[in-house]
Amino acid sequence: MAEGVVDKSPPRDALFSASPSLVLLEVDGRPASGFVATEQGHLVTSLHAVAGAREIHAVMADGTRTEVAQVVAMDDRRDLAVLRLPVPELAPPLDLSAVCLPGEGDTVYVLRATASPAPEVRSQEVRAVQVLGDWLTLLELTRTLPDDFSGGPVLDLRGGVVGVATAALANGRSLGLVIPTRYLLPLLRGSGSLPLSALETPRRRASRVRQVPRHPLSLLEGANTDALESIATTLGHAINAGAPAYNRGDVDGCYRLYARTAEKLIATCEAFPGAQRALRDGLSRCAGLQDSDDRAWALRDAFDGLLDVIGRWLQVRPPSPRPSPKSSPSSTGIPVVPTAKRYLN
């Protein structure tokens, strides 16, 4: 091979070694992928692939089929689930030794368990390394993945396991993603044993239908740029604090923060009755809900609807005229409309 040329052919030895660890999951009759990660029989997959499952069977590379009835750990934020095989020795674990995370343009190999010993392998390139905050850095692939690839391991050029594949949908767009292995390791240290019914809550959250109102621009009649930017900033700060609390499991704390923010804005934005009404509507929805989870989302819907109409208003309305301390000799006299600010997470 010529100097400087990178060999992107699949690491055959690594694929051969990984194959016995792959598991074909039958989740209520639907296929999904998984792999054995420890000698104790910890079975890794994507949470969305098993959420709400009533029955899960695991098919090993040698054809052995067994029922899976125990949940060890779940990570709703990162779409990871760890199940437990009834017999640890059914399959050898994959080596999850630390490897460097691939970068943009690097090649990775996504493995899907099949009914035969040989897995299906798809070569992909990393489109981008997405940093979503302190809680998650992930890889976005150049092409989408079929649903049944979710939960399979992803290898780098040397055959190291860099993460777990997941077929995702974001803003109406299908994505192929890789959740890095480092987020999986803490889950594998767990010794919990929950029934499959524990998978019901993630299913309910995943199937939630958002009810974000689409307000007309007339809602903000009489508003001015500075006041709307202040409202949007307050809402943005609440979401940036409440969303991580929700993801940590503090659902009630998230709801209470959102409720306090809505009440504060209602009390301070009397000049904008439309904005007050939008927030009151959100609080009224909460009054008819018993669950803090539902209440938090009701207020998040109200916030997102108000942020949306504020964003549209700022795009179509010119900024309020402000006196310039000194005119520039080269000024053309044409007002410059700044780029609309973005407030949504």
Automatic annotation (TrEMBL):
Name of the protein in question: Trypsin-like peptidase domain-containing protein
InterPro entries tied to this protein: Peptidase_S1_PA, Peptidase_S1C
Annotated GO MF terms: serine-type endopeptidase activity
Superkingdom as given in the UniProt entry: Bacteria
Taxonomic lineage of the native organism: Bacteria, Pseudomonadati, Myxococcota, Myxococcia, Myxococcales
Span list, region Disordered: 317-345
GO terms classed as biological process: proteolysis
A Pfam match: Trypsin_2
